[in-house]
């Protein structure tokens, strides 16, 4: 299993915003701090705003900020929005599955249980858990 670049950038963006509470941050600041492409980051920010994780502000003094307190944004919720669009394996695709073993294979059940446990663990943690009490991360992400 490997985290997609989009999910990774989404988490970095949310952590950046959480490290700068009450402040409108700019895409360029996030890109610089996280070594990310501004173009790729723009796509991620758009999706985060569309899914109501971020609030964007237009105009000269515009930028973005968390749409909700960092404590209420779970890592599981973010991962579900960014990762769940891709089936974990072919046997999770339903009618599109062409695997000849699907009718008698037990792997799908094992993987489904593992994914439930994975998301249950992510649901136990919020963006605030990643930032609060983490001075080294805050110093990397905080903008004066």
Describe this structure in words.
The chain is mainly alpha-helical and 144 residues long. It has a domain at 5-87 and 126-141: Arc Repressor Mutant, subunit A (Orthogonal Bundle), CATH 1.10.10. 51% of the residues lie in helices and 6% in strands. The chain has helices at 5-19, 27-34, 38-50, 75-83, 107-123, 127-131, 135-141, and strands at 54-57, 63-66. Strands 1-2 form a two-stranded antiparallel ribbon. Helix 1 (5-19) packs across helix 3 and helix 1 (5-19) runs antiparallel to helix 4 (75-83). The N and C termini lie far apart (37 Å).
The number of helical segments is 7
Q: What's the alpha carbon Rg, rounded to whole Å?
A: 18 Å
Measured between the Cα atoms of the first and last residue, the distance is: 37 Å
Question: What is the CATH domain class of the domain at 5-87 and 126-141?
Answer: Mainly Alpha
Helix amount, in percent? 40-55%
Report the portion of residues in β strands. Answer: 5-15%
Number of strands: 2
Largest sheet: 2 strands, antiparallel
Query: Could you report the average pLDDT, rounded to the nearest whole number?
Result: 88
The general outline is: elongated
Spell out the helices and strands N to C: HHHEEHHHH
In terms of per-residue confidence, which ranges show pLDDT below 50 for 5 or more consecutive residues?
none
Quickly give the structural class.
Answer: mainly alpha
Which CATH-level-2 architecture of the domain at 5-87 and 126-141?
A: Orthogonal Bundle
């Amino acid at each position: 299993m490997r985290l997609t670049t989009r999910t990774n950038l989404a988490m970095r963006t949310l952590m950046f915003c959480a490290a700068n509470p009450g402040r409108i941050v700019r895409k360029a600041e996030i890109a610089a701090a996280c070594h990310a492409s501004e173009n790729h980051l723009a796509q991620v920010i758009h999706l985060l705003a569309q899914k109501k994780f971020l609030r964007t502000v237009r105009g000269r003094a515009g930028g973005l900020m968390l749409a909700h307190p960092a404590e209420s944004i779970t890592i599981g919720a973010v991962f579900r929005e960014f990762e769940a669009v891709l089936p974990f394996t072919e046997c999770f695709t339903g009618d599109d599955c062409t695997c000849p073993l699907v009718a008698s294979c037990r792997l799908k059940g094992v993987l489904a249980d593992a994914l439930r446990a994975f998301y249950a663990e992510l649901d136990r943690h919020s963006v605030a858990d990643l930032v609060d009490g983490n001075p080294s991360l805050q110093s990397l992400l905080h903008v004066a």
